[in-house]
Amino acid sequence: MNKRLIYRTIFIALFVFAMHCVMLNSASAQVKPIPAEPTMKLQGLDGRVYDMTDLRGNVVLVSFGATWCAPCSTELRALEDLLFEYRAKPVKFFWVSVERPEEVTNSALKRYAKERKVSFPVLRDTDKMVFLQFSVRVRLPMIVLLGKDGKVDAPVQFGMRSPADAYKADIRARLNKLLASRSDSDQ
């Protein structure tokens, strides 16, 4: 082998190694440790402040979304179906818009929720302070489930799985697992 070929081979190997390191570093930067007991205090469109820590003893499903997000609208229909199924159980549903007021006003958000027949509280996280506890970037929809003990049931779920029946089956299985688990208040 001539020296030129050797140098070229070494350069290519180093370049590939460097790119591999950059990609690993980038991938690990996207992973965010999930807080066991996050701060989840949000303003509702009804004027109330909802603090998820006040809901211990209930399973809590919090869906983060946006009015411009088509999968979020599809997910809202699926969650409405599940809400109906769990209406007699200690499960609380919330939908949280991550949009700023200049992106969507409260009245436009109320209209959006009414058009989609959302019957659970609609909240705002305009600065994404709650959302960013779970993800380093906006990926919607995002569901966070809290057990009866108020702790996050990992993993946080991103996206809307198709078909909707399969998605509902996944959420239903997680809700049932959380309902069956014992919390400190059950003991």
Task: Describe what you observe in this structure.
The chain has helices at residues 3-30, 70-85, 106-115, 164-180, and strands at residues 41-44, 49-51, 59-65, 91-97, 122-124, 142-146, 157-158. With 187 residues, the chain is α/β, with parallel strands linked by helices. The chain folds into 2 domains: 1-31; 41-186, Glutaredoxin, CATH 3.40.30.10. It has a 7-stranded mixed beta sheet with strand order 2-1-5-4-3-6-7, with helices on one face. Residues 20-29 have low confidence and may be disordered.
What is this structure, in a nutshell?
It is built from four helices and seven strands, in the order αβββαβαβββα.
Query: Which topology of the largest domain does CATH recognise?
Result: Glutaredoxin
Return the structural class: alpha/beta
Record field, number of beta strands: 7
CATH A-level architecture of the largest domain: 3-Layer(aba) Sandwich
What is the CATH superfamily label of the largest domain? Glutaredoxin
**Major beta sheet summary:** 7 strands, mixed
Strand content: 15-25%
Q: What sequence of helices (H) and strands (E) makes up the elements?
A: HEEEHEHEEEH
